[in-house]
Design a protein that fits this description.
This protein has two helices and nine strands; from the N terminus they run αββββαβββββ. By secondary structure, it is α+β, with helices and mostly antiparallel strands.
Length: 146
């Protein structure tokens, strides 16, 4: 795959989320534009971003746990002028695939979806794409790096 062995908590979280998305089956299949990976879309596709938020302290002391939180955003990009129902169905499939309570594990780090995914308003980009972002709120607790 594109992602090598992860060493940091942040890359382990990314890998858990990316791995879960890679198991989503859509018909027809959709290309996935992974972060910083060259991809020329040939039709409807998904775009991936991890919107990090400030980590929190869960337990006191320098050896305590930190809580990493963020929004895993998967945007459905659909050719313009083909209606709203097709891309809305895909957005719904993404939300269901990352429903509240979903846990993804990578190299011992559990990433949990803590609230239902949010479908943001659609927008048109460059008169070419109709885009529906879906945001998946997650958290992961991990020991403070030593």
């Amino acid at each position: 795959g594109v992602y090598p062995m992860s060493d940091t908590i942040e890359t382990k979280i990314d890998s858990a989320l990316f791995g879960r998305l890679a198991t989503l089956t859509l018909t027809p299949t959709h290309q996935i534009a992974w972060p910083n990976v060259n991809m020329t879309p040939t039709g409807q596709h998904l775009r991936v971003d991890n919107l990090w938020n400030d980590p929190r302290t869960v337990t006191l002391g320098d050896a305590g746990k930190n809580r990493y939180v963020g929004l895993f955003q998967v945007s459905v990009a659909w050719p313009v002028n083909l209606g709203a129902i097709g891309p809305a169905d895909v957005a719904g499939a993404i939300a269901a695939h990352f429903k509240r309570g979903t846990v993804m594990t990578h190299e011992g780090i559990n990433v949990r979806v803590v609230r239902p995914p949010l479908r943001l308003p659609a927008f048109t980009e460059d008169n070419t794409w109709y885009v529906i972002p879906v945001r998946v709120p997650y958290q992961a607790d991990a020991a403070n790096p030593s």
